[in-house]
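pasting for ref
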Amino acid sequence: MRSDHTGPGRRTLLRVALGLGAATAVHLIAADPASTPSRPARTAGTPPAAAAGPPGHVRGRPSPYRLDPMTAHTPPRFRPARPPVRTRPFERLPELGHSMVLSFDDGPDPLYTPDILATLREHRVRAMFFVCGEMADGNPDLLREMADDGHVVGNHSWSHPLIPKLSRAAIRDELGRTSEVVERALGTPPLWYRAPYGAWNRNSFEIGAELGMEPMAWTVDTLDWTTPGTGTIVSRVLDGAAPGVVVLSHDAGGNRSQSVAALRRYLPRLIDSGYRITVPHRV
């Protein structure tokens, strides 16, 4: 999204979203079989090596099937089954073992996303990026860099609206246009989506499933969009750390310099504490 979404109703929306409760874990979700890139970390300015994400020979080619996998570790003939219509999003992933998931919303932003990608690359870990279509449309190179580094690129709507206020047609447009942008850049559509503000409704669950996506919420909200200070963001992540936790941060939508600095501090501490930083894998 192009500007900060810090209106007075945001905290209420977040409380409502958290009140949905955690979705029951299912065997469709597993840890990515390779939670860290299988190649040496590259330095800034070095072209990305061909690795995780869509195979290079299919990137940019329209997919004949809407559910292509988002990982090079999956056999090319495999296609995840169309997901069921959920009534709640996934908020934590206990089946991942002693692992955590880091997720970033609202990008990609050419000012902050590259620094976040560089930090993740330095520590050889993968994360989830829930992108807004209006940002992704102008930054396809950043989408490709995410995929090349093995990150999961998810759908966060086109313009970051309050989904329950939209008609079914408008929800389909918000999610569908964003999936199309991702597919044009990567050769495969996203397999995950996150509702702006964590505000879901039945229509969004149904349309997301029709587009082949599972709904992902979060366990720990850093509230980094309030710019509470780098130290506060770090403390929220470390205090909330636990197996299966999904951490929500942002790489766009405002000044995200605190989010960038906080990641540099808490990521090595999570790793030193024995957490495997991974991404979910549709099986």
